[in-house]
Design goal:
15% of the residues lie in helices and 19% in strands. α2 packs antiparallel against α3. The N and C termini lie far apart (48 Å). Bound molecules: S-adenosylmethionine. It is found in: Chromosome.
Length: 334
């Protein structure tokens, strides 16, 4: 039973407008029980949260849609549009669903990995291009891509600015998408527009972990999953040498902090997305980028293959529905 707030209500509501966007859904639910004004405010925050998973970090809002499956309006996680390094400075909370839009500058602690770059002894950024603006096939930067399996783009080491045409993967989620609830797979990402084959869609953003930390979290997530519905979004990527030996291993965990790529489900037929590591000139690490591997229609679910199927004790059932379905989800060896 909720009650009316007393005479100090306008001040209370003003303070609540500032504080409530920082709360988790569970905290928000308990605060909303205290009085009608806070209940109303919590409801509007929930509505705003479900209307944009990206909290304004991406160009287009990314809504959660769950009309028929259950009563979950959204998933709570911290949003980062790019890779970040775990740091003690990282804020454990991020405002979401308040009446004012969160700007990138409002959350600088979430952007640490963007500033990682290669520099020489004097601190000068290395390995970028000297172009004013990169455009067209005549630009030397156009020939950077396609040299090997790793894509190459202009980046922090280049003189050209953010408007340069050779930075297709640097501007966040590039197409309209929505997050749709499914009775068996949980949330999944669907396209909200036609996506032409070959187009960059988004990168996989999250916390960049050491292998030791990835192994620790993997064990912990497995434990949580065995007790009920829990979806981890810990991805291990290996960049191979031509000899086939792994030379670089990236552990990206989007479970607690990530972008919308954390909602892409697995399909045993390979799905409609392919992945490629893209290296920006001057950046220390490559990023895992997703491209449309075929033409994708409006409302189609975006999926890719999580990897090889391995027999293990606590394997999860696969509901990808493809004619080639193996029946179980691939599991990553961390
Ligand atoms: C990266 S998350 C994908 C988003 C997730 N569905 C959610 O609700 O947050 C990976 C998890 O999604 C679920 N999942 C992904 N693909 C699936 C599939 N084909 N069949 C069943 N569950 C799937 C599994 O629980 C898996 O651990």
């Amino acid at each position: 039973m909720t009650k009316r707030c007393n005479a100090t209500e306008p001040l209370l509501v003003e303070c609540a407008e500032l504080v409530l966007p920082y709360l988790t859904p569970w905290e928000l639910a308990s605060v909303s029980l205290t009085c009608r004004s806070l209940l109303k405010l919590s409801r509007s925050i929930t509505l705003r949260r479900s209307s944009d998973a990206s909290r304004g970090f991406e160009t287009l809002p990314i809504p959660f849609l769950n009309t028929t499956v259950d009563s979950h309006p959204y998933v709570h996680f911290l949003y980062t549009p790019s890779l970040l390094l775990p740091s003690p400075l990282l804020l454990p909370r991020q405002p979401w669903g308040g009446s004012s839009v969160v700007s990138l500058s409002a959350a600088p602690a979430l952007l640490l990995a963007q500033s990682v770059g290669l520099v020489d002894a004097s601190g000068r950024t290395l390995s970028g291009c000297d172009c004013q603006a990169c455009a067209g096939s005549a630009c030397p930067c156009a020939s950077l891509d396609g040299l090997d399996d790793v894509g190459r783009e202009c980046g922090p080491g280049c003189r050209c600015g953010p408007e340069c045409g050779n930075r297709a993967t640097r501007n966040g989620v590039a197409v309209g998408v929505k997050i749709v609830r499914d009775g068996r797979k949980g949330w999944g990402l669907h396209s909200d527009q036609f996506i032409r084959k070959g187009l960059f869609v988004f990168e996989y953003a999250g916390e960049l972990l050491t292998t030791k930390e990835a192994q620790r979290r993997h064990q912990y997530y497995d434990e949580l999953a065995s007790h009920g519905r829990f979806s981890s979004a810990l991805l291990v990527v290996r960049e191979h040498l031509p000899s086939g030996k792994a030379c670089l291993r990236l552990n990206i965990d989007a479970t607690r902090i990530g972008n919308v790529a954390r909602f892409v489900n697995h399909s045993c037929d390979g799905g409609n997305l392919s992945t490629k590591l893209v290296r920006s000139s001057g950046a220390l690490l490559p990023r895992l980028c997703f491209f449309a591997s075929k033409d994708i229609q409006v409302d189609e679910e975006l999926t890719f293959s999580y990897g090889e199927i391995r027999k293990r004790a606590n394997e999860l059932p696969c509901f990808c529905n493809s004619p080639f379905c193996f029946g179980t989800l691939p599991s990553e060896d961390t």
